[in-house]
Amino acid sequence: MASERRTFAIISHPDAGKTTLTEKLLLTGGAIHLAGEVKARGQARRARSDWMKIEQQRGISVTSSVMTFERDGITFNLLDTPGHEDFSEDTYRTLTAVDSAIMVIDAAKGIEPQTRKLFEVCRLRSVPIITFVNKVDREGRDPFELIDEVADMLALDVSPMSWPIGMGGQFEGILDYATGHVARPEGGSREFLGKIDEDPAIPDDFAEQAELAREAYPDFDIDAYRGGDLTPVFFGSALKNFGVVQMIEAIANYAPPPRPQPTDDGEVQPGRDEVSGFIFKVQANMDPQHRDRIAFMRLVSGTFKRGMKLTPSGLGKPIAVHSPILFFAQDREIADTAEPGDIIGIPNHGTLRVGDSLSEKNDIRFTGLPNFAPEILRRVVLRDPTKTKQLRKALDDLSEEGVIQVFYPEIGAQWIIGVVGQLQLEVLISRLSAEYKVEAVLEAAPFATARWIKGDAAAMAEFESFNRPNLAKDRDGDLVFLAKSPWDVNYQQEKNPKLTFGATKER
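-> structure tokens emitted (507 positions)
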């Protein structure tokens, strides 16, 4: 049932502890059985959510992963997102597919720039946020200072649900306001091993802090939380297992079940009978042996059954979904049925693309999954000119995923690659070599950004005749203006008032 689904993402600045929290949630949820599986290397103990070669080399997440597990009758669909700002496009699209999010904050650093950016994306879609202040077993900032910063910088009401009894060297556990119990550290590693103090003796200064926090901030209000106006705040340490169970229980008890999704024609409710969904991610080569391509679909309405025929908005003719997949990072199993809120993978050969809507009657177009104008443009140069076909195939695959954008100049033969962040270029070169056996280098292009052009046909024709050296087509055949600078964009907008120069493009 849809009411038993919780589809959520974990967002944070790099190094706040997102991957560790992901691992501990999976461990607590019974989805993995060995601590260290998310970070460990090797086939048996490899990174479960960071499976791509460059992720394992760099120790960072650069692509979103989906992991499904069940606990106490609730199906959790956890979408792990890249924390690095260079992969904000992938994260943005992933956040269109979730109903809530956990925001992880480092207790020593508070709100960091990428945390704030990701929160603003959540705010645009009214995605409710649970805040987890991580690493309280280490020296950190004053808890009041941390939650006041969340309230002030993010313009949210905050409601502390737990409180640290000391931090760093003075850390003596976590007080749960709901029960009055304290989870205590044990052993030389000072982990939470299950010791609960039901009648805790708390030193006076910490007891006063905890009481003041409880009185000074609003009580938790589930409607305010689900409306995106209030965030419950939990303190803990993912590494030491403090607060992990509370995170799962908070998602189960407070986070909304599948929510309506926006279309051109209003919202589609999860209770609608017709099966519908949208593609928010495409991943090539999850299994390099088979050159596969998996489209990730968020199911919005109806009960999906294996073998159903759905029509993609970008294609116009139905496709039979014979082998839908449920994910556990790189591992997978065939899904016979799926409910609203579930994420299923659809194997395909380039049929499905990011932004496609799928439905039984082809009468639904979900909105809000744009391409963003690139901020870095480069030319691609092959080391071996005989591998032009392989390069074209690789670039098509990777642009289909949304990792890069490819522009084909109206004049000149060298293709232009567009990305939002520098690290995406490293991923491109790494994946060309590892997955496609194509060795290439990137050269500077004489352009700084790109804009999609639309408008009056006569004005378009006139603009093309004067600016052909600066024009290209994207992979859909849409016209793109390659600008040498932001000033150049503004100048052309003023000079051509009948045209629009779009920084985003929806399918």
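The chain has three domains: 10-59+102-254, 262-359, 370-506.
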